[in-house]
Amino acid sequence: MAGLYIHIPFCKQACHYCDFHFSTSLRNKGALVDALCKEIETRKDYLGTSGLTSIYFGGGTPSLLSATDLTQILGTIQKHFTLTPDAEITLEANPDDLTSTKTDELKAAGINRLSIGIQSFLDEHLVLMNRSHNATQAIEGVKNAQRSDITNISIDLIYGLPNLSPEKWAYNIKQAFSLGITHLSAYCLTIEKKTALNRFVQNKTILLPEEPIVLEQFSMLMEQTAKQGFIHYEISNFCKEGMHAKHNSSYWKNDSYLGIGPSAHSYNGNSRQWNIANNALYIKGIEALEPAFEREELTDADKFNEYIMTRLRTIWGVDLVFVKDTFGENVLTNLQNEAKEYITLGYMQQKGENVTLTKEGKFIADKIASDLFI
Ligand code: SF4
Fold first, then answer.
1. Claim: this prediction has a pTM higher than 0.85
2. Domain count of the chain?
3. How far is the CA of 341 from the centre of ligand 1 (A)?
4. Does 48 map to a domain?
5. How far apart are CA 296 and CA 270, in angstroms?
6. In this predicted model, what pLDDT tens digit does every residue of 38-77 receive, in sequence order?
7. What gap in Å lies between CA 120 and CA 188, rounded to an integer?
8. pLDDT, tens digit, for every residue of 156-211?
9. Does residue 60 have a cis bond before it (omega within 30 degrees)?
10. Is residue 77 part of a domain?
11. Strands 83-93 and 52-59: what pairing?
12. Cα(222) to centroid of ligand 1, in Å?
């Protein structure tokens, strides 16, 4: 199992909550696509001989790529990698880009899964977040994709927003399911330091909801998705049976992945490396065959902590046999001691050699994980 991530660092406008790497100037797009292809070629051996089980175009806004750009990148990948027959090829899209022509082009290029950044079906919140689309475009985008026979569709929603009443949140969830999606990612709004939203919070232009209100929204999310028969397979992710995101699941299952493009991260089981988060310097480095990146070798403690952090958030949980075989008897004993109280209090459960969070535990997942760290 190995995945390939391609970072497309362009957006039409800056969403107020976002601290990802992107530029609102598309001036360098052609040179950037050439550099991505060159990086794909030069790093083709990073994953060894593993075939690719997933390709993920993230960003930024990958739906800003033209059909020609996409064909160029996918052609380069096919030239240098072997794809498994059922490889998942996901593209993150903003609804306003998903015209019927665009969705036909995406289908023809080989995209077989869309992750659509809807965030809300209410215009008041889309304006608050400075999203480039409105609620009508959100619905149309999904329908256009389905008309183009891209039926594996995930949408993103955000809760914890100012003035998001229980009725409004229920409306968003209902709208999502009315569209016949296969996957839902729902994230709690987080305030990142260097964002417009942080300034609004600091100068009290907007007021964030109190924690109990946000927890109630998470609770409603779990209830409503369960009613729809969706599986809660990661804290923020829900899917129909068999429709979990292969690419993101590979991160949570500790598989290797190669990240291409500015700011993209790669992981090979022993080290993590990340490209420079600057489009011009990224292109310059790739063209000169002197790529700009940093690398960190992971200690056993890093590996264990990452394993706990990611696996505890998933339905697959922490495998005690794996912990013993990989990190040793002492680490296992320490983990079991730390987990004991959470199991007694009903926040965690053990079935056989597997430990997972209970529903109650999902509300405090980060705290539990940090208590289990080395
Ligand atoms: S479209 Fe996505 S990447 Fe771009 S600014 Fe908005 S949230 Fe960030």
1. yes
2. 2
3. 40
4. yes
5. 9
6. 999 999 999 988 789 999 999 999 999 999 999 999 999 9
7. 12
8. 999 999 999 999 999 999 999 999 999 999 999 999 999 999 999 999 999 999 99
9. yes
10. yes
11. parallel
12. 26
